[in-house]
Design goal:
Elements (H helix, E strand, L loop, with lengths): L4 E4 L12 H11 L24 H13 L3 E6 L3 H16 L4 E5 L12 H7 L6 E5 L6 H9 L4 E4 L13 E3 L15 H18 L16 H10 L6 H15 L5 H9 L9 H18 L3 H8 L3 H36 L10 E5 L7 H12 L3 E6 L5 E6 L6 H11 L4 E6 L3 E6 L4 H16 L7 E4 L10 H8 L13 E13 L3 E6 L9 E5 L12 E13 L2 E13 L2
Parallel strand pairs: 1-12, 2-3, 2-4, 4-5, 5-6, 7-8, 15-17
Antiparallel strand pairs: 8-9, 9-11, 10-11, 13-14, 13-16, 14-15, 16-17
Length: 575
């Protein structure tokens, strides 16, 4: 396991000059590439236009034709939070545009696997859809789209995943990452693609005089809570366009103008929706929503997002919370098993390969991606966790490190050994694939070799990026409150992180795995500072005397008492 190094921003020293939280924030924005005149999250008018999306006109033609004709629109979405929010957005949005027949189908990851497969099309056919609309999938569904064509069902693909060498022969495709698409932001989540399609369809319907005479034109911005949740949950880069979508969604959540389901997910997780942040969406709402697709059936999550009844939403959120607790239990068991298998590989001083493939005969395929992420974080190398799919194949969930494009690595293995991989797809940082059980050993060696071509025998030492030392005068609740709502923070626009040396007054474990510290205040007149390190409990032996910490400054709200608290991301004895 590599100990990370703390790397300060080149402009870290300028933080020392900040006298107020506002001045500090201005310097933090500068560290993230914003100049003083640029707004971190401007209004909706600053979004890139839908017209820049390749295929949007054909998609709108198709969609408007079926809306006006009363056709049955069937949404087929992915079983993660991006797919669930995108599916709910499509249903709500299309109904608000005047579509009279809208339904959805979320294939079970256990029965069908990912994407619009021929089996999914056959399951959808008895519903007699006039148009299939994929959400967060479909760009790699060549055989599924072909099967739909055989049955006379046109397919409109909305997706954001990277395409393969061939595109499906769909009636229309909207995907910012398809060849020839000039849309400036390549980081739209699946839910973001759906939002753009709805906006473009509304504009066309408006031109055609569809609204009026008893049919109100909807304000699609009212659905941005779903866009914000799905965008944050899918951990896409928060470029300027995505920051606008997320920030505008958070504004509506805080103002109480969100779906009862989003509010219920935050409430069941102990968060006040009137103070919601992107972090709350990422670590409270999203895991509970994802738990449905991982453990049971994502339709539970979609129904939570679709209902307008607060009590129904609360009941469904409670069910999702229970599923998430079960998910955590399974994750802990699988992670312990994975750690044990890696310990065996390290006997007699052996070095772990640069890319890891793990497999457990009884592992839960819905949780394998989280376990891959946990092992990736600990050992700082690409990881694929395989589980038995129950259909004669092993299904792997891959997670990678910065600078290593895991989907491209899997594609390289596929080119070098055709037939070894049954199917695959994904992003730079996450991907999925299926192989036959007898191919595991060969794939493990091929994947490690593919990683070796990129990083060598040992992955690079992990780094923790820090904005610098937080001035003592700003280590307070006012600063914490300012930073909390100043984002939205996320991938590509990271939440401010600081580092510094502190004296530990006391250290204890909470919840078995979390490290709770009391630190001497930055000045003699200050009281102790509370700090918590989630999943850092194993470092309690190092938490004595003087320590160097990398941390975020946040608000601890305990029974209505709000105080500044450090969220630890790294701890090491002070030099």
């Amino acid at each position: 396991m590599s100990r990370p190094v703390i790397r300060r921003a080149t402009s870290a020293a300028v933080l020392a000059a900040a006298r107020t939280p506002a001045e500090l924030l201005s310097r933090l924005y500068s560290n993230r590439g914003l100049d003083g005149a640029e707004e971190p999250s401007p209004g909706l008018s600053a979004l890139h236009p839908a017209s820049a999306l390749r295929g949007i006109d054909e998609a709108v033609d198709l969609l408007v034709h079926h809306i006006r004709g009363g056709g049955h629109l069937l949404i087929v979405s992915d079983y993660d939070a991006d797919g669930a929010t995108g599916g709910a957005l499509a249903v709500r949005g299309l109904r608000s545009l005047g579509a009279t027949q809208v339904s959805y189908l979320i294939p079970s990851r256990f029965a069908f696997g990912y994407g619009l497969s021929p089996a999914v099309v056959d399951a959808a056919a008895p519903r007699r859809p006039d148009l299939l609309i994929t959400v967060d999938n479909g760009i790699a569904s060549l055989t599924g789209v072909a099967r739909a064509a055989e049955l006379g069902i046109p397919v409109l693909v909305t997706d954001h995943h990277l395409p393969g060498e061939r595109l499906p022969d769909a009636a229309a495709i909207v995907n910012p990452n398809q060849p020839g698409c000039a849309f400036p932001s390549k980081h739209l989540a699946g839910v973001g693609v759906v939002f753009y399609l709805l906006v473009a369809a509304r504009a066309r319907l408006r031109e055609q005089g569809w609204f009026g005479a008893g049919r109100a034109e909807p304000n699609l911005a009212d659905l941005l809570d779903l866009v914000a949740l799905g965008t944050v949950a899918d951990v896409v880069t928060l470029d300027r366009n995505n920051r606008i979508l997320v920030e505008q969604g958070l504004r509506r959540i805080r103002a109480g103008r969100c779906s009862p389901g989003v509010r219920a997910l935050l409430t069941i997780g102990g968060r006040d929706s009137s103070r919601a942040t992107a972090t709350d969406l990422a670590f409270v709402a999203a895991p509970r929503l994802n738990a449905a697709g991982r453990i049971e059936d994502m339709s539970v999550g979609v129904e939570c997002l679709l209902t307008d009844d607060p009590q129904v939403a609360a009941d469904l959120a409670a069910r999702l919370d229970a599923l998430n607790r079960r998910r955590r239990e399974i994750e802990g068991e699988m992670k312990d098993a994975a750690e044990s298998s890696l310990a065996g590989l390290c006997l007699d001083g052996a070095v772990l390969p640069p890319g890891l493939c793990l497999f457990g005969e009884d592992w839960h395929q819905g949780v394998s991606g989280i376990v891959a992420a946990r092992i990736r974080e600990r050992y700082h190398r690409p990881v694929i966790a395989f589980a038995n799919g129950g259909d004669g194949f092993l299904r792997g969930s891959a997670r990678s490190i910065e600078g290593v494009h895991v989907r491209d690595l899997i594609a390289l293995v596929d080119r070098q050994d055709p037939g070894l991989i049954e199917r695959f797809g994904g992003h730079a940082m996450a991907a999925g694939l299926s192989i036959r059980p007898e191919a595991l050993s060969r794939f493990r060696e091929a994947f490690a070799e593919a990683v070796r071509t990129v990083v060598g025998d040992r992955p690079p030492q992990p780094e923790i990026a820090s904005d610098g030392a937080l001035p003592q005068r700003l280590m307070n609740l006012e600063t914490a409150e300012t930073l909390r709502v100043a984002g939205p923070w996320g991938k590509g626009f990271p939440e401010p992180r600081f580092d510094g040396t502190f004296d530990v007054l006391s250290a204890r474990l909470v919840g078995e795995r979390h490290l709770k510290l009391r630190l001497a205040g930055p000045a003699a007149e200050d009281g102790p500072i509370e700090a918590i390190g989630f999943n850092l409990g194993e470092q309690i032996s190092e938490a004595g005397g003087a320590v160097r910490l990398a941390y975020r400054l946040d608000v601890n709200d305990y029974r209505g008492n709000r105080s500044a608290q450090l969220i630890l991301e790294h701890l090491e004895p002070a030099a």
